[in-house]
Amino acid sequence: MKSGFNKLVIGFVIGALSVGGFAVANNSNVPVVKACIDNKSKALFASTNGSCPKGRSAIDIGATGANVKSIAQLVSASVVSIKVTTTLGSGSGSGSIYKSTSSLSYVITNNHVIESAATSGKIEVELNNGDIYLASIVGRNSEYDLAVISIKKGNLPEIPIGDSSSIAIGDAVVAFGSPLGLSGTVTSGIVSALNRPVTTGSSNAESFMDAIQTDAAINPGNSGGPLVDSQGRAVGVNSAIATLGSAFGASGSIGLGFSIPFNQAKRIADELIATGKSTKPFLGVSFDPTFTGPGLRINNITPDSAAEKAGLTVGTIVRSINGFKVNDAVTAIVRIRSNAPGDRISVVTESGGTNKTFNITLGSVPALP
């Protein structure tokens, strides 16, 4: 496989223990939005004149100074700390309350946070108020590094959900989690880049992310926590950081954090909650790892796959997918998996010096737990 300049291989980040604490850091400026927060449910309502009715409190939503505190007030109750204990040791991470019924609550987190307890061990979820509950795994998806766990506690505040496809480079964002075991930690920054191809994990168990890059401080223990926009709505799941490596000292934030787009996380979480399993889009091609020219040369096509049905052939050079140039297999995989099964993608190929565009409807195959 060729190595591409856009490929990033990132180590997973998991903290150690969970202790009390609350911290806010800020380094961005965005316009202020006036809103009202329900004192009981923590639901957010628009305010036309800055005033709020009885039972609701006025807050400023944004990412400047006290406004980060307002976002923290809105979101923190929906963020949890996760501790995993197995015979091999313990680890910790973060998560967000995605759905809550009268008796059960579902938490989105990273697969790598809880996978060590998939066969045996104990998972504990600590709420923002310090209450601790045993958790069960609802489902896992190692290929997207996502998981859903549940606790037997209902009527918990669900995290506000945003649209990760609407964010732009330079937008203010706030990261929540339990870095280094410090639960209730909030940091702020901006969206540094979008559609960043990122792989995590080992060579035989890789996860692929169409990542949101942010300079909001993310450290070991933030894994699985939410990245929210300037109105406190989840747009990402914090998953990995880039570090300078052990030769440069202890690993930690260097302003290169990566989050899974929440639209993608939501699709997978809904499937896991409904069936315990999830799917991934499937094109049905493999690429020649010895090819050194621009693009990727197809060396195999799966029979009856989306690629075969569309008319792609072995030996064809793929130059771009959905407008993104692809010069390494990781970028191509990320571009495909950024979609959902059934989505229609555009693939530009080159054969004999002639470019051709294929509009292909992606197939669906089960994702690995």
Key words describing this protein structure:
25 strands, disordered N terminus, 6-stranded antiparallel barrel, 43% strand, 5 helices, 369 residues, 11% helix, mainly beta
Please sum up the structure shown.
This protein is mainly β. The chain is 11% helix and 43% strand.
Any overview of this molecule?
- The protein has helices spanning 66-75, 111-114, 262-275, 306-310, 329-337; strands at residues 8-10, 23-24, 33-38, 44-46, 56-61, 79-86, 89-100, 105-109, 122-126, 132-141, 146-151, 172-177, 185-202, 205-214, 226-229, 234-241, 257-261, 279-282, 285-287, 296-301, 317-321, 324-325, 344-351, 354-361, 363-366.
- A hairpin with a 5-residue loop joins β9 and β10 (132-141).
- The protein has 369 residues and is mainly beta.
- The protein is built from 5 helices and 25 strands.
- The longest helix is centred in the last third of the chain and has 14 residues, at 262-275.
- The radius of gyration is 21 Å and the shape is globular.
- The two termini are 25 Å apart.
- It is 11% helix and 43% strand.
Secondary structure layout:
Elements: E1 8-10, E2 23-24, E3 33-38, E4 44-46, E5 56-61, H1 66-75, E6 79-86, E7 89-100, E8 105-109, H2 111-114, E9 122-126, E10 132-141, E11 146-151, E12 172-177, E13 185-202, E14 205-214, E15 226-229, E16 234-241, E17 257-261, H3 262-275, E18 279-282, E19 285-287, E20 296-301, H4 306-310, E21 317-321, E22 324-325, H5 329-337, E23 344-351, E24 354-361, E25 363-366
Parallel strand pairs: 1-13, 2-13
Antiparallel strand pairs: 3-4, 3-5, 6-7, 6-9, 7-8, 8-11, 9-10, 10-11, 12-13, 12-15, 13-14, 14-17, 15-16, 16-17, 18-25, 19-20, 20-21, 21-22, 21-23, 23-24
